[in-house]
Amino acid sequence: xxxxxxxxxxxxxxxxxxxxxxxxxxxxxxxxxxxxxxxxxxxxxxxxxxxxxxxxxxxxxxxxxxxxxxxxxxxxxxxxxxxxxxxxxxxxxxx
Length: 95
Hints:
two-stranded antiparallel sheet; mainly alpha
């Protein structure tokens, strides 16, 4: 796939990037090269190849999923301008 200056101008407008007339020809060549490379990747036979999420076999450490209140109510309420009964006091929004 080969792009022209008109296609580059449209891409630049959609991306909200200002591209001068001199740069359009350069970007058309660069983007066309990238698209040709992607087309080459589409020709590779990937049947039977498992999907990867990372190039390194890394497993994340897991923790037990249990709900707690954090035991920091007093520390959190210290930051509030006003609190009452262990809760934030906020202005009335609706009448």
